[in-house]
Amino acid sequence: LMVQNLAGSLALVTCKEPLRHSMASQLRNALIKAQLPDAQWVEQASQVIAQENLELGCNLIEKAATEKALRDVDHQIAHAMDLRRTPKTPLNDQFIQMQNWLRFLPEALRPKAGALVPHQKRVYEDFAKLPRDRVAQQQAGGAAGGPSEQAVGAFEGQQQQQQQQQQ
């Protein structure tokens, strides 16, 4: 649960701006190759399309990062468990030495066998919700009149001006 949320959040934070810039650049190049006459329209259209599809792209990247992190952690845990099952391996000896240190920890800090109790699991679930709540609040607060809507409004305004000039 923790590795999924951490990997997903890190991917989301690090990919957003580079993805938006890359999408806008690729769209701009594709529209220029289509030989559209108005360079300003090409720029605005590429920015609007990139902004409108940014969340979808970020979700795909977040999902891929989460799945990869989960596979990597599962692989590492399986490998460590295999080594611990083999007697007289260095890792097994280190594991036993670590067990000796655990007896010096207070009872509240000692790891216990079995599943998490509900209040412990809630800590992990709250951690997973925390960053997304902040992002949702920021997006909800700035959704009306955001950059995407402003760009669309500017684009429509320019189209109307061009039509009036042609008449």
From TrEMBL:
<dbReference type="InterPro" id="IPR040398">
    <property type="entry name" value="Not1"/>
</dbReference>
<feature type="domain" description="CCR4-NOT transcription complex subunit 1">
    <location>
        <begin position="2"/>
        <end position="86"/>
    </location>
</feature>
<dbReference type="GO" id="GO:0000932">
    <property type="term" value="C:P-body"/>
</dbReference>
<dbReference type="InterPro" id="IPR024557">
    <property type="entry name" value="CNOT1_dom_4"/>
</dbReference>
<dbReference type="GO" id="GO:0017148">
    <property type="term" value="P:negative regulation of translation"/>
</dbReference>
<feature type="region of interest" description="Disordered">
    <location>
        <begin position="134"/>
        <end position="167"/>
    </location>
</feature>
<dbReference type="Pfam" id="PF12842">
    <property type="entry name" value="DUF3819"/>
</dbReference>
<dbReference type="GO" id="GO:0060090">
    <property type="term" value="F:molecular adaptor activity"/>
</dbReference>
<dbReference type="GO" id="GO:0000288">
    <property type="term" value="P:nuclear-transcribed mRNA catabolic process, deadenylation-dependent decay"/>
</dbReference>
<feature type="compositionally biased region" description="Low complexity">
    <location>
        <begin position="158"/>
        <end position="167"/>
    </location>
</feature>
<protein>
    <recommendedName>
        <fullName>CCR4-NOT transcription complex subunit 1 domain-containing protein</fullName>
    </recommendedName>
</protein>
<dbReference type="GO" id="GO:0030015">
    <property type="term" value="C:CCR4-NOT core complex"/>
</dbReference>
